[in-house]
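Hello forum,

I keep getting stuck at the same step: I have a sequence, I want structure tokens, and every attempt I make locally crashes halfway through. Rather than fight my setup again tonight, could one of you with a working pipeline run this one for me? It's a single chain of 233 residues.
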Amino acid sequence: MAAHAKTNIFYISVGLWLILGVECEFGWSNNTITIQTGGSVTIPCHYDKKYTPQRKYWYSEIDKNKTYTNTTDENLSVIDYPDQSLFTVTMRNLQDNQTGSYYCFVETGEQSTLTYEPHLNIHPAPGVSVMSSSVSGHEGGNISVQCLYSSGYQNEVKQWCRYKDQRCYTVGRTDTSQNSSVQISDDGRSSFTVLMTGLRLTDSGWYFCSVGNALNPVQLTVTKAETDTVKDT
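Reply #2:
Ran it on my machine without issues. Output:
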């Protein structure tokens, strides 16, 4: 009976946090992640460095369960990366009935801090998808990412957004404020391409292909440039 009451209190608390508002470290207005039925997705959940020692978890509004970090099951993995101040949630073999809202939380005492609130939309024909969910490049080099969208999104704004600092790059605009050039070209039919040149190590991280109110995550890894070693003869 006590366990049942505690569970009910937790559900009520989540509802109250969402109604009254909690500290939210990430404020995307377009946070609908679209995934094809049967597919998988990895979602980043950033948190403030001060929360590094705290327990983090992924809460599902669908089945009312919470999964703590460093848990790996057949279709769900929640892994913490303290050195990056984030944990990732990987969901596999997603089905239409898993469409709904999910939450990244950090335990901060008597209540928890909501760090990200994505809405997952699982559909046989997702509105926005990516050719590859992870890309890599060398320092000083280039990478290209192709973002796909359905016909209903042709007239929507296309953007390439960095998750951590919420910086977005819009089609037709080049931004060099991070010492790297970002160029976006839209074919006007079904895809847009993001070209990042002059990569820096600090460009590593999580980004989103964003179209209208839908998006899809992409992880970028930038490694040190290879240097030729000249040996004495």
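The helical segments are 2-20. If your local run keeps crashing, start a new thread with the error log.
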